[in-house]
């Protein structure tokens, strides 16, 4: 007598897309953030160390923006589906350095998203100016394409 509702529940369960928690968030590939900056993580070795490039859409300097190299590492390579990571950008058009730290998440629609915070260290001319040398911010990246 209760067969039909049971079948309906079963059919709904089968039709539901696999839970986002089952998908793995992979850092390699091309990403774009909320400012329109592009980042490509090209190489990831077996120890979770990676390198890539960063093309920023914004700069605190008056210099012409150039694509800059980045190097970082992700935690617990291959074991975590939503790994934490960090990387350093060596700006090639100014004597500044930025470090990012973040986590790679898979959202409820199965889309990967990188939630990050950064510190930008600008070079200042003397110890006296040290107090104003660091900026902090937040960036959210989504995938452009898998490489
Ligand atoms: C990032 O990529 C998008 C899409 O390819 C492009 O429109 C945009 O100009 C790029 N941004 C920078 C800073 O290169
Ligand atoms: C980690 O994953 C990569 C690609 O997903 C694979 O090539 C590699 O063999 C894996 N390493 C380990 C230790 O499982
Ligand atoms: C950092 O940037 C400078 C200036 O572009 C370059 O000479 C240097 O090789 C870079 N270092 C790394 C590790 O990418």
UniProtKB/TrEMBL annotation:
SUPFAM superfamilies the UniProt entry points to: Avidin/streptavidin
Keywords, in A-Z order: Biotin, Disulfide bond, Glycoprotein, Secreted, Signal
Signal peptide bounds: 1-21
One Pfam family this sequence matches: Avidin
Record flagged with keyword Signal: yes
Subcellular location: Secreted
Organism superkingdom: Eukaryota
Record-stated family: Belongs to the avidin/streptavidin family.
Subunit structure: Homotetramer.
Job description of the protein: Forms a strong non-covalent specific complex with biotin.
Protein name: Avidin
Organism: Apteryx mantelli (North Island brown kiwi)
Lineage: Eukaryota, Metazoa, Chordata, Craniata, Vertebrata
